[in-house]
Amino acid sequence: MSAMAFSTLPKPADGYIVERDLGVVFGTAVGVNWNFTFSVQKAMQDAARAIEETRTTSMNVMGQKAAARGANIVLGVCFDTEKQGGAAIVTCWGTACVVKAAPAGAHAAPVAAAPMPGAPAPVTGMPMMPQ
Length: 131
What we know:
Elements: E1 5-6, E2 16-32, H1 40-68, E3 73-84, E4 87-101
Parallel strand pairs: 1-3
Antiparallel strand pairs: 2-4, 3-4
């Protein structure tokens, strides 16, 4: 992979492995919609466009920070969007990583979900629905 890639998945695609985990990276951008209109539909379209542009900017900032660490992908990308008045504040974050093609015949080990501390043990042997 030569360009920065982004994925909402917490692990690389099949056929790739994480060579190095470079830590969490963030990108934040603020977009302001200064278009005033008497049309509700036009106002909603302008607001949606402003949020989309701000989201793209925040991803670009995050990608630049990841590239500065030597990453070629950001895994587990998440977004938070907050509107305050006419401004949209978008923060995105993920884990900067270096991935490479997996060696021939290598398979990723399955990831087992660890139980949360203090969580009750799963109930087994009970029907899900009355019969």
